Amino acid sequence: MDFYDVLEKRRTVRDFSGRKVDDETLERVLETAFKAPTNDHLRQFEFVVVRKRENIAHIAATVAENTRRIQQTGLEAAAETMDGDEYAMFVDALPKQQAMLIESGCLVLPFFRQKGCPLCKPVDQSSLNYFASAWCAVENILLAAAAEGLACAFRIPIGDESGRVREIVGAPEEYELACFLAIGYAAEDAHICRQKVICVKDRIHKDVW
User: Fold this and answer.
1) How far apart (Å, rounded) are the C-alpha atoms in residues 16 and 200?
2) How many CA atoms lie within 13 A of 161 on its CB side?
3) pTM for the full model?
């Protein structure tokens, strides 16, 4: 598949069919993470792959409380601050935060080694280099999954979710969870949110803004 076709094909999908992703395909997709640029050239990424639904549900339970809280307080406030497309995406995504992880049948937990200072208390912008490198790796995974005909959805941890998941899976203290990453096959009736159409020429500034 042409690279630009892959870019067009990659979309967030939160409705999965339950069809299993085989180990060989998953390994091929995750291998692309180590092709991404990293700030220290060490590519210190580790992946915990969870397949059993009861184990995924146990991990996904960490997001349930935060999701309920946001649903109670965030939807009404969001309606006043978001444009129509953004709000439609938010309304579709929020109720599925826990279910999409379980229904995918393949939850990938990408960990990266965070050195120097706490992730959420950086000394300066360069303190986030490890975090930025991790997301370059995640982007490679998303594109590789699209090339394989797979669907993905991710959730960035909020609150104490990262620490709780690290404890559940036994990850070392110096490793941070980049996201919850559901990888699977899209359901036939999977909802695809409307994409924003961006005029690139309007976003390119020559010499000055």
Assistant:
1) 32
2) 22
3) 0.93
